């Protein structure tokens, strides 16, 4: 089931909702203020696989971990020196 990212227009909270593709246009309630004034955000798609040594590797769309996005292409978490 896809994971969709939203931003609440009332309190600016960012949150994720997992729901079927058939329900993509249904309202998403903000977990902070319970407003229905939310907007779905465009997000990237990431595809992962395991390498021969069992480590995760990104096949398309993203780095192997969220720390890579913040630290650049080679974070210490999945790219030990």
TrEMBL record:
Pfam family, one: Zn_ribbon_8
Residue ranges annotated for the Putative regulatory protein FmdB zinc ribbon domain, each copy included: 1-43
Domain of life: Bacteria
InterPro entries according to UniProt: Multihaem_cyt_sf, Regulatory_FmdB_Zinc_ribbon
SUPFAM superfamilies registered for this protein in UniProt: Multiheme cytochromes (SSF48695)
Stated name of the protein: Zinc ribbon domain-containing protein
Species whose genome carries this gene: Phototrophicus methaneseepsis
Lineage of the organism: Bacteria, Bacillati, Chloroflexota, Candidatus Thermofontia, Phototrophicales
């Amino acid at each position: 089931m896809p994971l969709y990212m939203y931003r609440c227009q009332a309190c600016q909270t960012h949150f994720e909702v997992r729901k079927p593709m058939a329900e993509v246009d249904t309202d998403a309630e903000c977990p902070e203020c319970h407003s229905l004034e939310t907007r779905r955000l465009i997000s990237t798609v990431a595809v992962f696989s395991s390498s021969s040594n069992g480590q995760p590797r990104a096949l398309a769309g993203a780095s192997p971990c969220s720390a890579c996005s913040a630290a650049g292409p080679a974070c210490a978490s999945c790219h030990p020196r």
